[in-house]
Amino acid sequence: MLRFKILASTIPLVLAAFFARGELVPGTRPCISTGEASVQIAPTPWQAQLHVSFTDDPALATVRVQIVDAAEAADFAVVDDIDSTEAGACDVTAATRFIAISDSPSAAAPVIYLSDNGNADYRIFVKSRTFTSRDAAALVVGARGGRAHMVAAAL
């Protein structure tokens, strides 16, 4: 009977820790380092400071991101298929900004149009086992606080 009481009292604590942390076993999530801070895909939507969504209609987009074929042509490049990484580059700290990718766009949240065509606010190059183009686009837009900047070079 005592074992049952101990088990019954620990289950709520484990569940509270799971929901507070957002995950049972921490795993690697796409992340970029921006100076002293980092921007990371949130483990759960309610932990995110910024929500972004994607659209297939360029007229609905507030930010346009182009996927380019060469790192030299990109404003931001993700190449993580190497064996060594910079230690501590994406550790979670108080300055970490969490981004969530939402299925339904909000009026206040950035809406990203991701394409291979020119006329983009950002150009990204992604060659990764862990990042998708959507992850990279969400992180770049999130690092800028959801604001677009126009690329000076004509595409």
User: How many strand units?
Assistant: 8
Helical amount: 10-25%
- Taking all residues together, what is the mean pLDDT? 77
Give the oligomeric state of the chains in this entry, treating copies of one chain as homo and distinct chains as hetero: single chain
Portion in beta strands: 25-35%
Q: Radius of gyration, Cα only, in angstroms?
A: 19 Å
The geometry reads as elongated
Q: Into how many domains do the coordinates divide?
A: 1
Discrete helix count: 2
Strand order of the largest sheet: 1-2-6-3-7-4-8-5
**End-to-end separation:** 72 Å
Largest sheet data: 8 strands, mixed
Keywords:
155 residues, alpha/beta, 8-stranded mixed sheet, disordered C terminus
Task: Describe the 3D structure.
Residues 150-155 have low confidence and may be disordered. Helix content is 20%, strand content 26%. It is elongated. By secondary structure, it is an alpha/beta fold. The protein has one domain. It has an eight-stranded mixed sheet with strand order 1-2-6-3-7-4-8-5, with helices on one face. The chain contains two helices and eight strands.
Give the secondary structure arrangement, pairings included.
Elements (H helix, E strand, L loop, with lengths): L1 H20 L9 E4 L2 E5 L8 E6 L7 E5 L8 E4 L17 E6 L8 E5 L6 E6 L5 H11 L12
Parallel strand pairs: 2-6, 3-6, 3-7, 4-7, 4-8, 5-8
Antiparallel strand pairs: 1-2
Compact description:
With 155 residues, this protein is an alpha/beta fold. It is 20% helix and 26% strand. The chain has one domain.
